[in-house]
UniProtKB/TrEMBL annotation:
GO BP of this protein: division septum assembly; FtsZ-dependent cytokinesis
A Pfam match: ZapB
Alphabetized UniProt keyword annotations: Cell cycle, Cell division, Coiled coil, Septation
Entry coiled-coil feature ranges: 6-47
Full protein name: Cell division protein ZapB
InterPro entries referenced in this protein's UniProt entry, alphabetically: Cell_div_ZapB
One GO CC annotation: cytoplasm
Length: 68
């Protein structure tokens, strides 16, 4: 192989390595975002469960009033 081909190959490899690093950073950012969204979802589900329990308790109080 002549020098020009080796230089082109070296340039392509450098570009590939740069692209791989950018993709690694993007994957890392997406994983952090996923973890944040998962945590937010878990909090929302917990709040929904708490709200549902409170509504059931209030409805139970209405049922007690109707029975009285």
């Amino acid at each position: 192989m002549d020098n020009a081909l080796l230089e082109q190959l070296g340039t392509k490899i450098d570009q590939l390595l740069d692209e791989m690093e950018l993709l690694r950073m993007e994957v890392s950012e997406l994983r952090a975002e996923r973890d944040s969204l998962t945590s937010e979802r878990d909090n929302l589900l917990s709040n929904q469960t708490d709200s549902t329990d409170r509504i059931k308790a209030l409805l139970g109080r209405f049922d007690n009033l109707d029975a009285a």
